[in-house]
Each structure stands twice: as structure tokens, then as C-alpha cells.
Amino acid sequence: MSYVVWDGSKLSKRQGDIFVEKFKDSGYLPEALLNFITFCGSGYEDNKSIKDLNELVQQFCIDKVSTHSATLDMEQLDRINRSHICRNLTDDRQKHKLTTELAFAIQNKLGKRLSTHQRLNVNHDFVLKVLQLRKNHINKLQDLLEYEYLWIEPELSQDHFNNTSEITDEILSLVIKELESCEVFEQDELHQLLTSVASQIHNVKSGVFWKTLRLALSGKKEGPSVKEMLAILGKEESIKRLETAFNLLKPKDK
Predict the structure, then answer these.
(1) Which of 177, 229, 247, 252 is the most buried (most CB within 10 A)?
(2) What is the pLDDT of residues 24-51, one digit of tens each?
(3) Comparing 88 with 116, which gets the higher pLDDT?
(4) Is 228 exposed, middle or buried (0-12, 13-18, 19+ CB in 10 A)?
(5) What is the pLDDT of residues 167-208, one digit of tens each?
(6) Strand partners, 5
């Protein structure tokens, strides 16, 4: 059997990050980790393709096992894990398992941080929707925990909008009106609609327009595109968040 090399030295139990529990806790799927190991010692005609357990068993050939040293490439593990997530989302049983695991992880990490008026959205259909839309942008399920605004409505203040526009409330009001009449809440249609709205506001730069919407939806200056945020959150939640920001910013005499 081949030696497995980690950072230029032979793999050893003294290297704390090599234990299976470490990979599990970091969010790597068991089937992805097993697939990753086969990249090191071969045993396959093609040892660089994504395979599930059944395929690994069926295609294994002892004559293909290499005796040369193999180097662990952790970037490969990320790619393999992402590919297994995408694969699992095509299977009903595995899809349900992924969704349940992600919902549990969200509840476990974010549930205790809620303020009294916040709620955590771990509805099964919504969690699955996020997984489907973000599957090509993540390496592990835990990566989606960083998008807190998806699971918890952000707590906004006027300070969030200090560097936007003097007519931020008018921008939000116009966008809310257009979204309320939008019948197809998909990314392409939303981008076309919002681009049209932005072109009607002549005294506000395009960048400020998109920044305003992103802040209202997520409380963040950076992140996925606004059209993707809207599509993920859905029509009802998106409008609700924009209205919250509008009510925060509108002049009191309006």
C-alpha cells in the first residue's frame, strides 16, 4: 500500500486534523471522504471521478492499487464533497437527509442567538430550496450557516443606510410596488424588472441602487446578487423585509 503524505510528511496520528471526527465535524460527507481516500491509493481504472459506495465496491480492482506515495490535496476534498452534495440532491432519500442535517445545524448554531422578536426559518421546503440554489457555490453544508440572513431576518438600523441615498425610502417604495405585481419570481425576470426600475431613478447611481436593496434584504454590503437573494427568500419574505427597511427610513410626516 502507498504512504499518504500530508504537507510534505508521512501521515501520522500526531497530526490532529486527520481524525475522522474532525472531518465529520467540519461538514464533510462520509461518502465524499471515502471517495477522497481512493484518490490516494488508486485501485481504480479511473481514480479521479466521483463515485458513490456502490460504484467504489463494483469498480475496485486490486491490481490497480498503487504502491507509490500519495499526497492529500485538501482542495480536492472540497470539490469532491461539493460534487457529492449535488449528487445527493438528485436522490429523494439523500435529499431529505441533507435537508434534515442542514436544518439541525442551523438550529444548533443560530437558534440560541435569536433576539426576542426574531424567528428562525428552518422550514423543510425553504432549506431544500436554498440547498438547490446554492449547491454549486458551497463546499460543505456548514458553508450555508454563514448566510445568516437566509435563516434570520436581519436587525436593521438607520446606520446601515448611511452611505446609500437621500431617497432610499423612495427607492424601496418603488421596488416594493413593482415586486408586488411581479408574477414570476425567478432570477432572470427579477433582474430584468429591477434593472428597469433602476433606470427610472435618474439621480441615483446603479451601484447605490443595488447596495440599498442588498442591505434591506440581508443587512450585508456584500453577498449573492440581489436577484438571487430575492429568488431564495421568495416573494412574501422579500417584500416583508423591504417594507421593514422602508418603515425604518421613511420620514415621520409621510
Answers:
(1) 229
(2) 888 899 999 888 888 776 777 776 778 8
(3) 88
(4) middle
(5) 888 999 999 999 999 999 999 999 999 999 999 888 888 888
(6) 10, 71
Q: Which residue has the higher pLDDT, 174 or 64?
A: 174
Strands lying side by side in the sheet with 70-71: 9-10, 4-6, 70-71
pLDDT band, residue 138 (cuts 50/70/90) = very high
In degrees, rounded to 5, the angle at the alpha carbon of residue 165 between the alpha carbons of residues 196 and 175 is 35
d(CA 57, CA 62): 11
Which amino acid, one-letter code, is at 224?
Answer: P
Cβ burial of 9 (10 Å; 0-12, 13-18, 19+) is: exposed
Q: What's the whole-model pTM score? A: 0.80
Pairing label, strands 4-6, 70-71: parallel
C-alpha cell at 144: 450555508
Q: Which three cell numbers stand for residue 154?
A: 436581519
Query: Alpha-carbon distance 89 to 230, whole Å?
Result: 22
- Tell me the C-alpha to C-alpha distance, in Å, between residue 247 and each of 40, 115, 172, 225: 57, 20, 10, 24
HEC string of the chain equals CCCEEECCEECCCCCHHHCHHHHHHHCCCHHHHHHHHHHHHECCCCCCCCCCHHHHHHHCCHHHECCCCEECCHHHHHHHHHHHHHHHCCCHHHHHHHHHHHHHHHHHHHHHHCCCCCCECCCHHHHHHHHHHHHHHCCCHHHHHHCHHHHECCCCCHHHHCCCCCCHHHHHHHHHHHHHCCCCCCHHHHHHHHHHHHHHCCCCCHHHHHHHHHHHHHCCCCCCCHHHHHHHHCHHHHHHHHHHHHHHHCCCCC
